[in-house]
Amino acid sequence: VPLRIAPVLCSAAQLVERTLYVHLHPGLNLGSGSQPRPVFIPPGVDLSTLITRLYSNAADICGHLDIRVLLTNVRNQSAAGNGTTTSNCPFPSPQSLSHSPDVVLTDFPLQDPTQSHQVTQCLQKYAGSCYVCSPTLPSVLLHPQIMKLLEKEKGLQHPKEKGVPLETYSDVVVGGTFDRLHGAHKTLLNISCLLANRRFIIGVCDQAMLKKKVLKELIEPYSLRVQRLREFLQDIKPSLQVEIVPLNDPFGVSVVDPELQCIVVSEETRKGGEAVNKKRIENGLPVLVLHEIQLLKDAHHTDTEEEKISSSSLRSRLLGTLLTPPKDTSHLPLVPYVIGLTGGSGSGKSSITRQLEALGAVRIDCDKLGHEVYQPGTAAYHRVLEEFGLDILNEDKRINRRTLGKRVFGDKERLKALTDIVWPEIALLVKKAISQAGEEGKHVCVVDAAVLLEAGWTDMVHEVWVTIIPEEEAVSRITERDGVTADDALRRLHSQWSNTKQVEHANVVLSTLWEPEVTKKQVLKAWNLLQKRIQQKQETH
Ligand SMILES: CC(=O)SCCNC(=O)CCNC(=O)[C@H](O)C(C)(C)COP(=O)(O)OP(=O)(O)OC[C@H]1O[C@@H](n2cnc3c(N)ncnc32)[C@H](O)[C@@H]1OP(=O)(O)O
């Protein structure tokens, strides 16, 4: 079977767009003339290896597919008698899957081509007896090249693990973030389901546990992660009692639940599992069996990413891509296409804008335009003086922005009083700059505006791009760059929307947290994808 996984996945991936359910039935014979029935298969060590290889191969070959290995027909013989189920048929009635199948595929090899009709008929019926699907479900025989592999397999020695039973447990626990459910998560979940006969508890990291995570703003909301887990587990082993609980410290229920027998860990989290057992002993509870699974390698990882398949690598790959489609901007002219670039103080907007400028965009610097509106003699100048008093003036009668900054940052009301005066003036200057760029035949403008979202300027732009860095990093950059204290920097940052809130409104997210080269790559990626979008938009227009 291991040899067959890659070609089967390859040929299946040519037909499947979204979800590929994998139902295992060793020795299924579709060509004997009699209708085969689903049978129970025992949870052996070889099955657990197979599942790991399947997800690992899938990550390399067809990473875009949502693979789910179904385990309804996998049952421990001893569990059969313990009252969980007494039927000898794994499917007393067809199981309903969260994505109803459109086609059933098999790697059953034809002995001769005339068998084809009978085999596909048999397969259709077989699928219908296991899962709820259309009575006219198309059935397809995969890849004839598998025959060659079968020949090769005949010459292979049986692996040592063949037939070795897997120790199973009534109650199993795992913990994790489970952000953007990927192959490594699914391996962990599938193997945990193989090991668990009755109850499966999953601790899912909640806010307190996410603080230190890379690009935590891009982590899916807790409710979505839980919903994805539930759907996956309901598909792969509906008989299990699944309990999903928030994890707000590294231990959660694992150190207090007396019924638990086993915790599933990876090489990386083994130490965490040992710490759980230490706590359990302290709490007078029996220790858990640590079942360690292999970490899947990420064949596509870059130099700056981890070798294992990881959610943080997946998150960093999202940077520069379109996360949410732009909203309707039919009130704006198509050219120039306007990007509103925003992000907290110190998050690197200027360096990103400079790179976009080098790629051909026109830069509209709102901080600079903002300073223009304070010029003596302007309407805004007089209104600001009326509002804040003459003691914000320098000797030369110019407004001292530093002094004004100290008055407004950290005081919501005063800041609002200021921005109510200056934002409309700055907005006029921005609009003027955009139309001037259009007249000059420029295609893309970048409006670099620190508080674009707070000002509600999204109607002025086609897309919102947000740049984020962790708060500690922002504070260190601001104090170094602007010579202000850490408290002043924090006050300024807290006058702006949080990264998370900004990301919620972003079409594209960028981060300048790493080396300049990494940012450069991100910006180039974002720019190239943007060009494609603009082209598509112009074509459909
Ligand atoms: C909608 C927009 O984004 S327009 C551009 C931002 N400008 C405004 O909102 C106008 C109100 N602000 C101001 O006039 C000035 O910032 C002042 C007078 C308060 C301070 O002036 P200066 O000391 O010269 O500081 P400067 O204008 O360079 O801004 C310093 C930081 O404050 C932040 N900042 C500016 N305005 C605001 C604001 N309204 N709310 C929160 N933070 C702000 C900026 O992010 C900037 O940091 P960054 O360059 O790392 O992004």
TrEMBL record:
Q: Which PROSITE patterns match?
A: DPCK
Record carries keyword Membrane = no
Q: What class of enzyme is it?
A: transferase
User: Does this entry carry the keyword Mitochondrion?
Assistant: yes
Q: Which GO terms describe its cellular component?
A: mitochondrial matrix
Give all residue intervals belonging to the Cytidyltransferase-like domain.
Answer: 173-316
Q: Which one GO biological process term can you cite for this protein?
A: coenzyme A biosynthetic process
Q: Which SUPFAM superfamilies match?
A: Nucleotidylyl transferase, P-loop containing nucleoside triphosphate hydrolases
In Gene Ontology terms, what is one molecular function of this protein?
Answer: dephospho-CoA kinase activity
Q: Which family does it belong to?
A: In the central section; belongs to the eukaryotic CoaD family.
HAMAP family in the cross-refs = Dephospho_CoA_kinase
Q: In its UniProt entry, what is this protein called? A: Bifunctional coenzyme A synthase
Originating species: Echeneis naucrates
Gene name for this UniProt entry:
coasy
